[in-house]
Amino acid sequence: MHVHHGARRPGAPRVTLLTEGTYPHSHGGVSVWCDQLVTGMPDIDFDVIAVTGTGREPLAWELPAHVSSVLSVPMWGPAPAGRPPGGRSGRRLAEAYERFLTALLDPAAEGGFAPALHALARAAADGHLSPFLRSDTVIAVLTSVWRRPGIAVREAGPTLHDALTATALLEHALRPLSAPAPVEGVAHAVSGGVAVLPGLAALERHGVPLLLTEHGVYLRERYLGYRTAPYRWPVKAVILGFFRLLAEESYRRAALITPGNRYNRLWEEEGGADPAAIRTVYNGVDPVAFPHAGPEPDALTLSWAGRVDPIKDLETLIRSFALVRDRIPDVRLRLFGGTPRGGEGYRERCEALAAELGLAGTVTFEGRVDDIKDAYAAGNVVMLSSISEGFPFTLIEAMSCGRATVSTDVGGVREAVGDTGLVVPPRDPSAMATAALTLLGDPVRRRSMGEAARLRVIEQFTLRQTIDSFRAIYHELAAGKRQSPVRVVLPAPAVSGSGSLAG
User: Fold this and answer.
1) N or C: the chain end with fewer CB closer than 10 Å?
2) At a CB cut-off of 8 Å and minimum separation 6, what does 355 contact?
3) For the chain, where do the domains classified as CATH 3.40.50.2000 start and end?
4) Homologous superfamily, domain 2-80+179-277
């Protein structure tokens, strides 16, 4: 779906936002960040290439006039029309695909990933890639690579079903290559992974500089997700190999990488990014839009805000709440946030856990709230239980509202909180419960921490600082003051695709 919106303005800098599953088709932290960036820079012309689910998702945000167009690239909708190439073109594409697969599965061949990927991108631009990846040829190519001596997954005995599954997953993952690549300005990928694909194509074909912002560590989250995915190891080896090499290629080719915290920076350097090409830019909020939340609720309450998703680990939060309730019988846990499509099963699992622990009625799933400030005001203490985060909006919003917080020590959480909240290990209900009990039992301390948290946001994490930083970066890249780094093929890091990065 291609939505034309505002008219282009001669002379205005042009930025193409590259998104996946977020702005402008859904709500959530990264979508909020994109909306803040766009609405805060009326002097910049924006386009959006949005990787979506089916392509039928409605716009969730009101777009300002300086957003010229939105192109939706569905990963899971109907397959793109077309026919695979024949003759010499077909043979060349099959050879490129073989090099691509070999790079995913053979550490000695990883240098062939980037050239093969760009060959696939050219085929996608001609409308040939998706039909090719749905042909019998690609199954034969994959099974041939799997059977080679020295390929580790050969020992797992890959099956025809594995080949069909891996090929289907790759076909969907590579669909963003079919999007028209930006031809001017700056391509700004607001996450790693498949959203970057049109930006890499734009850099290769038109020299458009690539700016990469990672809020969470995309590669780490893929490892976390695939750890429990219902696929055999041969399938995981292909898909995780793709995500790892795509991350490394993105880090090497980006003109500038702007992680939201120092934790992300370490991953990016490990993945091959030039430290000189990394500039940390923290997320920010408007302290006027998130004023002090006012008096605490009369009944002791823990509140949480976010999307209902396994990565938010609500199960640990619910288990910790059961321990808190053993000590404070009248305490409540209020959970604010929507359930994304496909996440209904996870919410049902969390509701069943609450019932099993005897918490029905004291744990409430309240859905999306019209004003997120109400979610923070609803709690004496605001909780964050995620197993992966970047620099979480819900945390700095709650801090701006003057609430004390208990958060898991993931991503940039400790950088955000400093000494104005309590930080506990992830997946540890006992530690989380102890921290919550500490603050619930000490109103003077939690109010003092809430006041310090708001002051910390005002001093370090304002929206104006974020917008001014990115405006300067856009002008810098558009003017060619930073050159895209030369591609350097580095040896594979000392980790494997077995999920060892997900620790």
Assistant:
1) C
2) none
3) 2-80+179-277, 301-460
4) Glycogen Phosphorylase B; (3.40.50.2000)
